[in-house]
Each structure stands twice: as structure tokens, then as C-alpha cells.
Amino acid sequence: MSSAVRDNKDLHRFELDADGHVAFSEYKRDGNAIEFRHTEVPKELEGRGIGSALVAGALALAKTEGLTITARCPFVAAYIKKHPEAV
């Protein structure tokens, strides 16, 4: 598994490759704000912490850019609730 979360700006999503699959978290950016809308982890990768690694990396990238973060995605919202230091 690659531990590098990348921002695929063309598709408006953060991505993480793992074992030939791609987990992603879709977003909408508006100026200095980012809204996480949907996160998807392929069934083949479920239960391995891939989603958490993806969201942690995505939030770190957003935080580095100084973006205001909104979580409409339930998975991202749950991650932030569990890890408030991530935002």
C-alpha cells in the first residue's frame, strides 16, 4: 500500500492507492473552504484502516493549505469527532 494521499484536483477528490485499488474522498472547494462530501473505500480494502488513513492524509493536506473544513460526509465527520486535533 502506498501511504501517499494525493489531491486529484481534476476529479475533486483525495485519493489513496492500496493493493491495486483506489480509495477516495470527494470534496468541493470554494475559496479557502473545503467541504468533504463522500468517501468510498473499495470492498477489497474494508477493515484495514484505509479509510482512516485516507481521511487523515486529506485533512492534513487541507490543514496545510489553511482551508476551513466542513464534513458533510458521515465518515469524515466521525473521524473528526474521534480525532479533533486533525482539523
Task: Give an overview in words.
This protein has 87 residues and is of the alpha+beta class. The chain has one domain: Gcn5-related N-acetyltransferase (GNAT) (Aminopeptidase, 3-Layer(aba) Sandwich). Helix content is 28%, strand content 36%. The protein is built from 2 helices and 5 strands.
CATH superfamily: Gcn5-related N-acetyltransferase (GNAT)
Give average pLDDT, whole number.
95
Distance between the termini: 25 Å
In CATH terms, what is the fold-level topology?
Answer: Aminopeptidase
Side-by-side strand order of the widest sheet: 1-2-3-4-5
Element string (H = helix, E = strand): EEEEHEH
Strand content: 35-45%
Please give the radius of gyration in angstroms. Answer: 12 Å
Brief rundown of the structure:
The chain has about 90 residues and is an alpha+beta fold.
Task: Pick out its properties.
single chain; 87 residues; alpha+beta; Aminopeptidase; 5-stranded mixed beta sheet; 36% strand; globular
Detail the topology: elements first, then pairings:
Elements: E1 6-8, E2 13-18, E3 21-30, E4 33-40, H1 50-64, E5 68-71, H2 74-82
Parallel strand pairs: 4-5
Antiparallel strand pairs: 1-2, 2-3, 3-4
